[in-house]
Design brief:
Tetracycline Repressor, domain 2; mainly alpha; 0% strand; 9 helices; 73% helix
Length: 220
């Protein structure tokens, strides 16, 4: 069997074990058995449990980001690209719950360098969304200039909300799909965020903003 195929099988098995057991409790014996390989071969190909964990995180992050970028086709208008990107994000995390569980839970809880990979994933998605927001604002008729901080803040809020909805789905169904609970579909989750983000963006580019309310000191 080609080495790349064998390594992919090992990573697939490792993602399942890490998602179910957690990094600390995951056993290289269980990973090797699930992959249909010997433990010495797993060590030979992927060096250590820590290296294997890092490989899994990087792979899952790259695949997810690629799915979002591929869905946001450059020939589509900005709002369609954001819609397609959000649907791709939720569809991918729903189809790969174990991969998302490893990214959203295990990687973040074990610090560097694992958390850094997840941070890079988030920055990649944020960059895509900021570009779409700025493009939409630029072509809006008679729109006032959109502050870069507003575009960035809206993008981070949107990504954070998307991550929370994906986490909710994993929490309801479990990484192995055996749990229970009502969660939105990929389309419903994307619609929710579009209603919040795009409607809010339309207000921003039209000059309609939430009025700043200053607190009045007591007794003054």
């Amino acid at each position: 069997m080609p080495r790349e195929v064998r390594e992919r099988q090992m990573c697939d098995a490792a993602v399942r074990v890490f998602a179910r057991r957690g990094y600390s409790a995951a056993s290289m014996d269980e990973i090797a058995e699930l992959a249909g390989a010997s433990k010495p071969l797993v060590y030979l190909y992927l060096n250590s449990k820590e290296d294997l964990f890092g490989t899994c995180i990087r792979r899952e992050a790259e695949v997810l980001l690629a799915a979002v970028r591929a869905a946001a086709r450059p020939e589509d208008p900005a709002e369609r690209r954001l819609w397609n990107g959000l649907r791709a994000f939720f569809a991918h995390t729903a189809e790969h719950p174990e991969g998302w569980a490893v990214l959203s839970r295990q990687a973040r809880s074990h610090g560097e360098p694992f958390a850094g990979v997840v941070a890079e994933l988030r920055e990649g998605v944020v960059d895509v969304i900021v570009g779409l927001i700025e493009e939409a604002a630029a072509v809006a008729p008679d729109a006032p200039p959109l502050d870069g901080r507003e575009a960035s803040g809206l993008a981070y809020a949107l990504v954070g909300a998307a991550e929370s909805l994906a986490d909710r789905a994993i929490g309801a169904h479990g990484p192995d799909g055996l749990g229970g609970g009502a969660v939105p579909s990929a389309r419903e989750a994307a619609e929710t965020l579009m209603n919040v983000a795009w409607v809010g963006l339309e207000n921003l580019v039209s000059g309609r903003r939430w009025p700043a309310v200053r607190e009045v000191p007591s007794g003054g």
